[in-house]
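debug: dumping io for the single-chain case to check the tokenizer round-trip. Nothing else runs in this session.
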Amino acid sequence: MYSTELIRKFPNTPDKPILYVVYNRQHIRNAEMFIGMIHGEDYLKEHVTIATLDKPFKKDKDYSVYIDPTVFAYKNSWND
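debug: decoded output
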């Protein structure tokens, strides 16, 4: 599965905020771009929080968690 395939599966009207986990900070801009292109900038601002494996996020909400497929590729690579 590719990042865009997963992002397309986000619900049109989420019943709770979405937490989208990417591998590191360098992947945040791509995630924002793809989510904005597929669902719109307003959707991104209103419903999505992007977090990385190494950066904490606000845990005061109940999220629907989606993990970018590239996380698994990078996490299991020899570079990690």
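debug: round-trip ok. Strands lie at 18-22, 48-52, 64-67.
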